[in-house]
């Protein structure tokens, strides 16, 4: 929304915009808040932004998105009371030289189309997803709507008036961006960037054999899943295979089709038996670095019609090799695969998971390639070092603060190289421990997760969460990094928006 306002252009003046303006003259609240306030020569306007799908039924407003449905206040009433609260405050500032000036408000719904007429609003007061694409034009129309029939004693403001009012309002609003809002921004940025990754699916789909390689966060699992959707839509019996049962459950919740079998390498025989097939028309391998050995490759070769030489297959693997958590990567197996009838090699270099701040921390500490930073800067990576007692206290504080914030508890995951009974979590006060649940094969199927979760790092490969707290590791600078690099690499790159590192010692 800020980007849209910043990109708005007016030939006759320069409007000012504020986010989360605090309202000390609100009619029904001691202190209220306006989403976005625009100060223009055409007056003062409040824009109330509501994401997701908007619904009004039985006197209740709700918004629905990937995190479920929430009841909200009437957005038109919110915007109306907010703009009058601002006007009341400004009137105090202008008195005794009070002049009348236009005020107005609108509701912005960038994620949905608005088709409903109503007695409490005019269409000009609504910016839906269609208007949002032409936001500058819509904003000009909003100004015209509110100023067209203004009373004779309502005056357009000068640029000097706009600047003076903006300077007056500035002390009354807070620029502190809460963590949940930063997480939401990162999520929105990630969605836009991930959509750009579709071009790589188009390229892969045009080729019969593809090796797709990239670091953590470059969208390999997303591409594998989207490619699977397209192959089965074309009627191909497709096998999507990985090593992790958690990743298998994650993928199963996202793609379901009678032509698609999703299996771990150890469960493929059972899946094949249930399918009644002898071979599959197409093969997709995700987190392929875990299967880059001749035993697994020869087994997969036998499952694919035409094998690796003549069959249709897509192999996604991490070019940084995080697989030494479980097995050593066989480089000769990778070379063997690259020599199977000239496969197309598709490198992924754009990171669409982690913020720039997280990528900088990973690259600084581990000196590895995790793609070019393209998401928002995001909040700082917070690092703590101390004794066991100090870190337990810090972890307790973090969990308490984060669960008391507006973040969804399910967006927080604690990662450790050891099981929960040997980790710092076991030392937390009982009340805090009860807020944390250990992920397992069943719980990992539900996203977002239920409450704050704990996982061993090796089990969380291929997965991610908005906020990650990494514990039970020493700072990389004091460890034998080559022996433990994969733990740091996987652990640090699971965080999408915010990373906390509680280093031992």
UniProtKB/TrEMBL annotation:
UvrD-like helicase C-terminal domain residues: 450-502
Molecular function per GO: 3'-5' DNA helicase activity; ATP binding; DNA binding; hydrolase activity
Keywords: ATP-binding, Helicase, Hydrolase, Nucleotide-binding
Start and end residues of each NERD domain: 12-108
One GO term (biological process): recombinational repair
Keyword ATP-binding: yes
Sequence ranges assigned to domain Schlafen group 3-like DNA/RNA helicase in this UniProt record: 210-294
Protein name: DNA 3'-5' helicase II
Organism: Marisediminitalea aggregata
Classification of source organism: Bacteria, Pseudomonadati, Pseudomonadota, Gammaproteobacteria, Alteromonadales
